[in-house]
Amino acid sequence: MKINLLFTVILTLIIALSSCKKRIKTELVAENTKIISKKPNIVFILTDQWRGSALGYAGNPDVKTPNLDAFAKEAVNFTNTVSVTPVCTPHRAALLTGRFPTTTGMFLNDIHLPAEELTMAEIFKKEGYNTAYWGKWHLDGHGRSTFIPKERRQGFDFWRALECSHNYTKMPYYDNENTTLKYWKKYSPFAITEDANNYLEKHAKDENPFLAVISIATPHYPHGSAPKKYKDMYPTESLTLNPNITENFKERARKELQGYYAHATATDKAIGSIINKIKELGLLENTIIVFSADHGEMMGAHGVKPFVKQLAWDESIRVPFLIRYPNIKGNKGKVVNAPLTTPDILPSLLGLTNSDIPNEIEGENLAELIQNPDPNVDRAALVMNVAPFGANYKDEPYRGIRTKQYTYAVIPKGPSMFYDNIKDPYQQNNLLGKPEFAAIQKDLDIKLQKQLQKIGDEVKPRAYYMKKWGYKFDDSRRAINWWDWKDGKGKVQSPKSLNIYSFKN
To answer: What digits encode the pLDDT tens for the residues 419-440?
Structure first.
């Protein structure tokens, strides 16, 4: 009797424990399924003025970017990504809207992106995403140090950012709704990425996915402000100069490259910390990670001084673009040589997340090419500069296309640029008007005109577009006068017919 009773008790315990174990396992499976089945997080790392060639994985013999080199082996590499207009505000507006500068009117620095524009954060919020932004913004147009209230943040809820600053050792920012200007306590790429990592850690187990845009202002000038530890890695005499850097800029180019590469290596370390944090938190297989830049810079190439961009040469327009996505598997480290231009990025992210793509978006959804990378595919990516300003004021406006092999551009007077980028990677031999290339030139011109027809654009002088949108330059600096805001004299200029108004910081 006692034996039977003992047996019954033991059997009951076994069944109970088994049931409990099964229940716990079921709950864990359910929880894991919940995490995996939600839409992927997006971490978009945007850097400033980082040329597509200035990376170790891109074949640069000098610059040290070990973290991004390792990431390139885990991602798909779009080798011919171009900035639609290679300068800050136009690129950022095109990135957030998926629309071209001639459509939005966002073709100058320091103008205001209208609230009416449908943006990346607003679209993903409708898809259930939490949204966060760090660093340089440059889309507000109300002065470079003015507080940006929530209604002007284009759908980003978490906010630690500033319109624009290149003080990397004492970078100012605003913390969400706090109107007091704060300062990052260390070199800004390190400070911003540390803060972003804290956000990732806090929200790793959220039911909703997140869109985190981390906008780092380096390796943009001033190059001399890079940490000494990193500048010491690059003795000027050891640096390789591209053959298209003219003699008058060689000495200066070496000096600037020292700081430029130092910023790049330090920023690479900061980016590496983000990628490692994503791995540490177990988010890698449910997160899309993008690394890119808004434009490059000339660095003395073709006789153009360092810091200058806006031009259609590769030094200016070609930027890095690495993307890693969940279930990438056999596509790790693969290359796509077909060009991608800025408005293509947003619809491609929407495609990768199975999200609806608004009709207003003009860029192409390249999700299929990202998921099935083919180095042999080709397409024509549109680039433009509607109204050159500042250091580029005397340059002609242009429209151009970048294909896998060629760069072709026209100005109001006619064709201006035609390069074979495979045979002539430093673009030293302009093929315009050469009889043996006439058929190719004609084909490129047809491709360009088709791209312009799609968006209702045509190549006209700067004055036409300045008048169309009602913009005014400061005559002395030939740019939107963002500096007047410090004196309370700033004026908002926007493609939306805002009443031009002034107010103090």
So the answer is: 999 999 999 999 999 999 999 9
d(CA 49, CA 317): 10
pLDDT exceeds cutoff 90 at 95: yes
Confidence band, pLDDT 50/70/90 cuts, at residue 496: confident
Give pLDDT, residue 487: 87
In whole angstroms, give the CA distance from residue 83 to residue 100.
11
CB 425 within 8 A of CB 243: no
Peptide bond into 397 cis (omega under 30): no
Query: CA-CA distances (angstroms) from residue 300 to 158, 306, 419, 502?
Result: 39, 5, 19, 39
Task: Using the Cα atoms of residue 233, residue 239, residue 244 and residue 247 in order, give the sign of their dihedral.
Answer: positive
Contacts of 330 (CB under 8 A, 6+ apart): none
Catalytic residue IDs: 88, 138
> How far apart are alpha carbons 47 and 294 in whole angstroms?
7
Cα(479)–Cα(110) distance, integer angstroms: 9
- Alpha carbon distance 17, 39 (integer Å): 35
Measured between alpha carbons, how far is 474 from 486 in angstroms, rounded to an integer?
15
Q: What is the dihedral of CA 370, 85, 95, 352, to 10 degrees?
A: -10
Residue owning tokens 């050159």: 388
Closest residue by Cα to residue 389 from 108, 149, 74, 13: 108
Place of tokens 């060689």: 250
Torsion angle in degrees (nearest 10) through CA of 252, 257, 262, 267: 130
